[in-house]
Design brief:
This protein is an alpha+beta fold. It has three domains: 9-95, Butyryl-Coa Dehydrogenase, subunit A, domain 1 (Orthogonal Bundle), CATH 1.10.540; 130-244, Butyryl-CoA Dehydrogenase, subunit A, domain 2 (Beta Barrel); 256-390, Butyryl-CoA Dehydrogenase, subunit A, domain 3 (Up-down Bundle). 42% of the residues lie in helices and 15% in strands. It contains eleven helices and ten strands. The chain has a four-stranded mixed β-sheet with strand order 1-4-5-8. The chain has a four-stranded antiparallel β-sheet with strand order 2-3-7-6, with no helix packed on it. Strand 2 (149-153) and strand 3 (156-166) form a beta hairpin. Helix 4 (100-110) crosses helix 6. The chain is globular and about 75 Å long.
Length: 406
């Protein structure tokens, strides 16, 4: 059975247009090495410019409705854009924007029309970059335990608290969105509210956090001290924030799927094909070939899970545990692939020397990233709990998947 995607005539024609456009607007200097995992401010400015160009064409959020700034394109066109921009090893959008792809759909599902018209078009066209603020220092993946409060005062809510492990660069976002506690005495999951927040409001402080994966890579902590947010920026109604969050959490947990591969694994496989030890090709060793077969199998299963979920979500198929299944396999598969890579080339796999490191340092980067990636977007334990609840294990009522845009 052929699980691969093949271009229709219409896709091939559109791919030609996309390729020619990307060749014209995306410079080669945007490539980032594993020793400098944050982009520079100059690169970020270039990325924002590219984002604006893509947004003007409707390619930044290709499947968002046109009335909200998107392209109104079909799934085949969205696949082409995603595949072609992936060849440049940048995301869509290409600039620091950890929030619009998740927060935008939540706004689309739960906001009123005036809020949609206010927030979505500038997200879709690249005028605004947004960050999602979910994790707190005490709670990790337990988002419902948030201690950041939003207390209503007239036509405003006053926010106090801390969010951490957010963002990714030194460039400040334009907007933030977050889940807060609006009823300290209310029952769990029924005491939360979801807000969109201008990042320049008084009382907001953003500080960087260094990460394990080396280079200049870091996340940030965001502190709120008596930050006054207009009541208009409350999405979905007071104390209804958990339902709003169910939309972006479904996407973050893998429900939206992906058509991308794993560039770091591809680099490792290319390295093994060309590298030699004591005059003998590493890939010619039978034991190494067995390990490589396992790496390739792990990667292909993960890739196919992503493609399946991409098709299901965009075809409006009813979804259950598929998102968390894909996320869980990817997280655990990253650790398994790390062990297999190290089994193939030994401790060279964790060498970060710029001259000697395999695959120009990308193998070492994968070793570190595979550990870090177990946590973001819900830990492996969170994914297992979600799968169990979606299958009706341990509860009398089977949990439904989060609502996605129509």
């Amino acid at each position: 059975m052929d699980f691969e995607m093949h271009d229709t005539a219409e896709m091939a024609a559109f791919r030609k247009e996309v390729k020619e456009t990307f060749e014209h607007i995306i410079p080669k200097e945007l490539v980032v090495s594993p020793y400098d995992e944050d982009v520079t401010l100059e690169q970020e400015a270039i990325r924002r410019k590219i984002g604006l160009e893509l947004g003007s064409r409707g390619w930044l959020r290709p499947m968002w409705p046109k009335q909200y700034g998107g392209g109104g394109l079909n799934i085949d066109q969205a696949i082409v854009i995603e595949q072609e921009i992936d060849k440049y090893e940048i995301s869509n959008p290409p600039y620091s924007d950890s929030g619009a792809g998740l927060g935008g759909p939540a706004i689309m599902v739960w906001a009123n029309e005036e809020q949609k018209q206010t927030f979505l078009p500038k997200m879709a066209t690249g005028e605004w970059a947004s960050w999602q603020l979910l994790t707190e220092p005490h709670g990790g993946s337990d988002l419902a335990s948030t201690k950041t409060t939003a207390i209503k005062d007239g036509d405003e809510y006053v926010l106090n608290g801390t969010k951490t492990f957010v963002g990714s660069t030194d460039t400040a976002p334009d907007w933030l969105w977050t889940i807060t506690m609006t009823d300290p005495q209310g029952p769990r999951h029924q005491n939360l509210s979801w807000f969109v927040i201008p990042a320049e409001l008084p009382g907001i402080v953003i500080q960087p956090i260094d990460l394990l994966n080396g280079g200049g890579g870091h996340k940030c902590s965001v502190f709120f001290e008596d930050v006054r947010v207009p009541a208009f920026n409350l999405i979905g109604g007071e104390n209804n924030g958990w339902k709003v969050a169910s939309t972006h959490l479904e996407l973050e947990h893998g429900g939206g799927g992906t058509v991308r591969g794993n560039r770091q694994v591809e680099r490792f496989l290319d390295y093994i094909k060309d590298a030699s030890f004591d005059g003998q090709s590493i890939a010619s060793d039978p034991d190494v070939r067995d390990l490589l077969a396992d790496v390739m199998a792990e990667e292909d299963i993960s890739r196919l899970f992503g493609i399946r979920n991409f098709w299901m979500s965009n075809s409006k198929k009813k979804m259950s545990y598929e998102g968390s299944q894909s996320s869980y396999f990817r997280k655990m598969g990253g650790l398994r692939k790390s062990r297999l890579m190290q089994g193939a080339i030994g401790y060279y796999a964790i060498m970060s020397d710029k001259q000697l490191a395999p695959a120009n340092g990308w193998v070492d980067s994968f070793m570190k990233t595979s550990i870090i990636s177990v946590h973001p977007g819900g830990t492996q334990d969170i994914q297992r709990v979600i799968m169990a609840r979606r299958m009706g294990i341990g509860r009398t009522v089977q949990e439904a998947a989060g609502q996605l845009p129509d």
